[in-house]
Amino acid sequence: MDYNKKNVEDIDVNGKKVIVRCDFNVPQDETGRITDDKRIVAALPTIKYLLEHKAAVILCSHLGRPKGEFKKKYSLAPVAERLSELLKQEVKLAKDVIGPDAKALAAAVQPGQAILLENVRFHKEEEKNDPTFAKELADMAEIYVNDAFGTAHRAHATTAGIADYLPAVCGYLISKEISIMGKALANPARPFVAILGGAKVSDKINVINNLIDKCDTVIIGGGMAYTFSKAQGGSIGTSLCEEDKFDLALGLLKKAEEKGVKLLLPVDTVCADHFAADAVPSVCEAGKIPDGMMGLDIGPKTVELFSQAVADAGTVVWNGPMGVFEFDAFAIGTKAVAKAIAGSKAISIIGGGDSAAAVEKLGFADKMTHISTGGGASLEFLEGLELPGIACLNDK
Fold first, then answer.
1. Which of 128, 126, 124, 140 is nearest to 59 (CA)?
2. Which residues, other chains included, contact 98 with Cβ-Cβ below 8 Å and sequence gap of 6+?
3. Cβ neighbours of 246 (radius 10 Å)
4. Which distant-in-sequence residues (6+ apart) come within 8 Å of 122 by Cβ?
C-alpha cells in the first residue's frame, strides 16, 4: 500500500480557512478535569504550523461515545481550555457542530486564530459518514487536514467524508505514523521481528498472517499463545483458549515453516490457580499446565528466548502484552520484553493500545523509536488494510 500523502507543508494555507480533525479523546475524572493531555499535546505541532503560516483554524474531534446526542460530560469545553493554555491564545469553543454558533465562529475566525467545534459525535451523522453533514462542515473551510491517526481506520464524516469536498492533506502525526510504519512494513531493516501478544488469536490472525510474509521472526505471547499450545496437543489447564481457532493456529505455524520464518511460542509459563492480583505465581513448562491452573504470563526461559530474538533485530514491531500486566506478579514478561526492546539498537515500533500503555507505565517510552497513537488503526495498518482516513487524502 502506497501511503505517499500530501501533508500540511505541501499546500498553501496562508489566509485560508482550514478544518483540522484531531484526536482530543482524552481521559477525564468525575469533575471533567483532563487527567492525561498527551493527545492534545501531540496535536500541537500541526496546529502551530497552521497558525504560524496564517491559516484560520477550525479544530474538531470526538470525545467518548455520546451516541449522537448532546451530553454535558462529553463536551469539549475542558479541551478548549487546555488548548488555550498550551497555545497561549484563546481557543473559543462553539456551542454546536454545524449549528448557528459554529457557523458564526467559523465565519469570524481570523488568520493566526483557532476555534474548536463541539464534539462531532453529538451528531449520529458523524459515525454514519453522512454526506450532508460532511458537506456542512466542509462549507466552513477551504482545506481539510486529518491528524487523527487513532480514528483513521474509521470511515466517519470528519475522518473521511469531508475529503470529498475539500483538498485533503495530513498533519504531522499521521505523516509520522505512515512514514515510520509504512517503511517498516515495506522496506524494514533486518532481521525484522514482530512480537504479538494480547488475549485472542481472533483479534490478531490477519496481523500474524500479514507479518509472516514480511518478518524474519514472529513471536507470540499473551493469552493467545495458549490456543496455539492446545492446538499442538498441549495441556493448558483453565487458561484462555479459542478452541474454534485450532485449525487457523496450526495453519499459521505451517505457513511460517514453509516460508522459513521463525515462529516462537512460549516454552514456559507463569501460572496461578485463579485470576487475581494476589494469586500465587508458579512456573511450569508450556503445554504442561496442571488442571485447575491458568497461564497468566510468560516464564523466565521464554523471557530469555524472546529477549535474545530482539537483541540483534534491525526492526521490532510490538503489539499486545505478554501477560496480565495490570497485576504486578504477572507483568514480569511484558516488562522484560519492553526492556529488551528498549535496550536493542533496532528501530522499535510500539503499536498503540496496551503495549503503548505498558511502555509508558514502565518508563521506556523515550527509548522507543515510535509509539503509535492508535490501537485499532495501527493493528489494521499492520494487517495491510487500507485505512479510510488516510486513503481519502490527496497523493503527493
1. 140
2. 123, 133, 136, 137
3. 16
4. 66, 68, 69, 70, 71, 74, 96, 97
**Residues 196, 319 contacting (CB under 8 angstroms):** yes
Burial of 36 (0-12, 13-18, 19+ CB in 10 A): exposed
Query: Phi then psi for 242, rounded to 5 degrees?
Result: -115, 95
Q: What is the pLDDT of residue 354?
A: 82
Task: State the pLDDT at residue 1.
Answer: 56
Task: Cite the active site residues.
Answer: 39, 200, 353, 376
The whole-number pLDDT of residue 2 equals: 60
With helix as H, strand as E and coil as C, how does 284-300 read? EECCEECCCCEEEEECH
Q: What is the pTM of this model?
A: 0.86
Render pLDDT for 121-168 as a digit per residue (tens, 0 to 9): 999 999 999 999 999 999 999 999 999 998 999 999 999 999 999 999
Confirm if 152 and 1 have CB atoms less than 8 A apart. no
Q: Residue 195, Cβ neighbours under 10 Å: how many?
A: 28
Q: Report yes or no: 193 and 316 within 8 Å, Cβ to Cβ.
A: yes
Angstrom distance (rounded) from CA 141 to CA 145: 10
Q: Is the peptide bond preceding residue 191 cis, with omega within 30 degrees of 0? A: yes
Whole-number Cα distances in Å, 153 to 19, 324, 372, 375, 382? 19, 27, 13, 10, 12
CA distance 267 to 385: 32
Answer whether residue 198 shows pLDDT above 60.
Answer: yes
Portion of the chain with pLDDT greater than 90, in percent: 84
- CB distance 140 to 372 below 8 Å: no
Three cell numbers written together for 351: 503499536
Reference 226, options 261, 251, 198; nearest CA is 198
Per the CB < 8 A criterion, the answer to whether 19 and 140 are in contact is yes
